[in-house]
Amino acid sequence: MDPNVILLVLIIGAFYLLVLAPARNRKQRAADIKENLKPGVEVITTSGMFGRVTRVDEDEMTLEVAPGVEVRYVIGALRKILVPKAEDSEGKVESENADQGPGDAQDGEPPAPKNI
User: How far from chain centre, in Å, is Cα 104?
Assistant: First the structure.
């Protein structure tokens, strides 16, 4: 095979992996968020603000971040929607997206000291 053809195929493959595939994934994620965004859903914004959606318009949403405190955000500033897990046997409800690191407290224990 001609080395120029191989080089051309590699360049096209790299373009697809670096540009087209991530753009398609971003578009799919945005469509999923818009589909699942409705009043009453808890969300996290890209700035780290937690809130409950109270109103959704075409390009913006209103979040209640504290009782009686509402803030307007552009829908593009949404990082993820929090989906609560079903209750466990003890009646506790945990978030499906709750992340705990290896040093985080579990089952009511105080956190372990961290060495600096």
Answer: 21
Does residue 56 carry a pLDDT above 50?
yes
- Side-chain half-sphere CA neighbours of 40 within 13 A: 2
Domain boundaries, the chain: 1-36, 38-84
Q: Calculate what percentage of the chain has a pLDDT beyond 90.
A: 34
3-state secondary structure 56-95: ECCCEEEEEEECCEEEEEEHHHEEEEECECCCCCCCCCCE
CATH topology of domain 38-84: SH3 type barrels. (2.30.30)
